[in-house]
Write a structure and sequence with these properties.
Layout: E1 4-20, E2 23-36, E3 42-47, H1 57-71, H2 80-90, H3 95-112, H4 117-120, E4 132-134, H5 139-151, E5 156-160, H6 166-176, E6 181-185, H7 192-204, E7 207-211, H8 219-228, E8 233-235, H9 245-248, E9 254-258, H10 259-262, H11 265-277, E10 281-285, H12 291-298, E11 306-307, E12 320-321, E13 342-343
Parallel strand pairs: 4-5, 5-6, 6-7, 7-8, 8-9, 9-10, 10-11
Antiparallel strand pairs: 1-2, 2-3, 12-13
Helix pairs in contact: 1-2, 1-3, 2-3, 5-6, 7-8
């Protein structure tokens, strides 16, 4: 017996151009990984690489043959944590590639045991809702997009900020959607004193928390904002893997994990426990991703305080359906084995 690994790239169109402080994208390049056993079982996983962290679909494709060599040296996927750790010894700086393999292995293991992944982990099926992100546009357009999202059933919205119009944006959006929960993500765009000023403004507009207000390469700036903000601060770009958590624990209240940053599901669980041990709340976010990976993140929802798993909801087309539903509901079905990613064709 042995395992086999194959992969295929997809450039998935977004439903509309998506802009953050660092730029605009119109497609989500993803790489879908399949791991198979000799009994005909298949596990699928996806990589949604981020250029900001030095990865592209091309780099994922380049390193997957090395990762396949590790996987194909095992007879079964059951020692999945050991396999994930072995992948890191071969490819250290390509976490999205390793994550795709990790997800496929976990999907395969759970399917072999005829269990949904969250039940395989011993978790309940009760979940939280995900936020839905409103990308950067002119203030009036962002207000219209927010109102449209609320009409579609979303009651938690995340606003991307980091422009010269930030004040006008928050005022226009809050006027358009006075009742919903609003979260803000600046993607490192503000200076420390500016960030504190914005946090006070956002508090006036009943924003729930602010994500990564200042550049990650300046940890003292993050502490400066965290000490002075009236709102909770979430660390994203400052929180890559579990070794970052002790460094940010005194500066923020929320650790924002992403599978594509940390390198796999086993590492994500370690990060959750590390964050809890340091008194932090936990959010799981995402990149531009297919349900081939978003579905795996959804399986962690019972362990989270906040979810930002809308990557597949922003796509015009996805080769997989999953547990994340329009309106932001995360539906974990214990009768569906694996991660719950179902081919659409």
């Amino acid at each position: 017996m042995s395992l086999s690994l194959s992969f295929e790239r997809h450039d998935l169109p977004l439903s509309r151009p998506f802009t953050i402080a660092r730029g605009t994208q119109t497609t989500a390049p993803v790489v879908i990984v399949t791991v198979s056993d000799d009994e005909g079982n298949e596990g699928i996983g996806g990589a949604g690489p981020a250029r900001h962290y030095g990865e592209t679909a091309e780099t994922v494709e380049a390193v997957l043959p090395e990762l396949a060599t590790i996987v194909e040296g095992y007879e079964t996927p059951e020692p999945v944590v050991a396999i994930e750790d072995a992948l890191e010894t071969v490819v250290r700086d390509n976490p999205a590639a390793r994550t795709a393999v990790s997800i496929a292995l976990h999907d395969l293991v759970a399917k072999r045991h005829e269990l949904s992944l969250h039940r395989y982990w011993g978790l309940p099926s009760e979940t939280i809702d995900t936020s839905f992100t409103i990308g950067i546009d002119p203030p009036e357009e962002m207000a219209e997009n927010a109102a449209a999202a609320v009409d579609e059933g979303y009651d938690i919205l995340k606003l991307k900020l980091g422009t010269d119009d930030d004040r006008a944006i928050i005022e226009a959006v809050r006027d358009a959607v006075p009742e919903v929960t609003l979260r803000v993500d600046a993607n490192e765009a503000w200076r420390p004193k500016e960030a504190v000023e914005y946090c006070h403004l956002l508090a006036e507009h009943e924003v729930e928390f602010v994500e990564q207000p200042v550049p990650a390469e300046h940890p003292a700036a993050l502490r400066y904002v965290g000490d002075r903000s009236p709102l909770p601060i979430a660390a994203d770009e400052s929180c890559i893997d579990r070794f970052d958590i002790p460094q940010i624990a005194d500066s923020v209240q929320i650790a924002n994990l992403k599978l594509m940053k940390c390198g796999g599901l086993a590492e994500a669980i370690r990060m959750i426990h590390t964050a809890r041990a340091h008194g932090l709340e936990v959010m799981l976010g995402c990149m531009g991703e297919s349900n081939a990976s978003i579905a795996a993140g959804a399986q962690l929802a019972p362990l989270l305080d906040y979810a930002d798993l809308d990557g597949s909801l922003l796509l015009a087309d996805d080769p997989y359906d999953g547990p994340i539903k329009p309106g932001g509901t995360i539906e974990l079905d214990p009768s569906v084995p694996g991660i719950g990613a179902i081919p659409t064709t």
